[in-house]
């Protein structure tokens, strides 16, 4: 499989190089040159497969030519073997034809484990074969950091530096990162906010002199391998609910358009999905596009669902590429316009095309808490604030009551106690068994000023298993 850039000016790469690449050299994002398409008979024959075996069948075309079948099978079995629930991604029924897909049974209790557990193992496999070491730098507002560290902790060829804003992530989130100890794991608390952290990552990709030739790898959701891994659970859920012989709808709490873009790809690969609902919090740039064809940058609002607090959605460019007939120059012009003006809209027929599949809703903190309370009252089930936004959007936007509606359950409620408390239901979520002693574990973290040079000096000093590069 070859991968091309959404801006049409970068060389095509194979899977292995895309895994290590991050942004394309023309500033675009990599997408498959040709999306695989499965027949109804093929998809039907996968019913009942264990998660890792289904994952092999869905993802095999994407890694073809780079990862041998036997290696890929073993990697997938290991990856999904660390999940706490035997079903890996179990479905829980909330109401009539309404289901939560629990994507928080992995080591760090958020859906990001699905992709980052795999990414870490794929990196290890490829780097061992190449006899190469890399440095990962990532910024996190909470969930990505812990999932990336968990995914890479066993990779001998990776040194991982994760920056989080000092004192601005929840204690559970911080401890999930800082209690994983290892020579190759470095947590940096930056005296600044999340955007400061992200800016330093971007600046480091732009000028890599401080790495003395060591390659820098991205773990945010622009990395194609993350999107690829997320396609699988759409198939897994839909197969259990009667696909491919019946259509299924999904409601997806989203910020960067990563998770929902994976659903869009699943549909284009042959899975009968009749509706995809974009569920956002008050940071609603995606909702403004879907409801009114206005993709306009706004200021950032801190919300009770912090993992969706974004101003722009990095993966949206991948959808724009398809909406423009995969014309990279058209996308490039649009993104230039967006960069200059902070605004973007598309021609009417392209927007109408998007609206055939997508609906959207923005839910504020009040609506989030009300939904947590509503569902808890109906069923006793406790939602995390992100998932609650998905449930609210599903109930408001649903097109057909006859078809199953699946809400992606993106995190375990214990990660976001503030929202659960504000919902006023008197129930406090408990840490699952594998994290029961989280508050007793030793932490390791370095506090650094909001200063690029200081951060880069730190990476240079510790980037080789704790020793200088
Ligand atoms: C990252 C995250 C999201 C948003 O995912 P996108 O890929 O940006 O759409 C939603 N919920 C939780 C809990 C997350 O950690």
From TrEMBL:
Signal peptide: none annotated. The keyword Cell wall biogenesis/degradation does not apply. Pfam families: THR4_C, Thr_synth_N. Its cofactor is pyridoxal 5'-phosphate. One of its GO terms (biological process) is threonine biosynthetic process. One of its GO terms (molecular function) is pyridoxal phosphate binding. Keywords: Amino-acid biosynthesis, Lyase, Pyridoxal phosphate. InterPro entries: Ser/Thr_deHydtase_PyrdxlP-BS, Thr_synth_N, Thr_synth_N_sf, Thr_synthase-like, Threonine_Synthase, TrpB-like_PALP_sf. It catalyses: O-phospho-L-homoserine + H2O = L-threonine + phosphate. SUPFAM superfamilies: Tryptophan synthase beta subunit-like PLP-dependent enzymes. It is an enzyme of class 4 (lyase). Its EC number is 4.2.3.1. Residues 2-80 form the Threonine synthase N-terminal domain. Pathway: Amino-acid biosynthesis. The modification N6-(pyridoxal phosphate)lysine is found at residue 112. NCBIfam families: thrC. PANTHER family: THREONINE SYNTHASE FAMILY MEMBER, THREONINE SYNTHASE-LIKE 2. Belongs to the threonine synthase family. This is Threonine synthase.
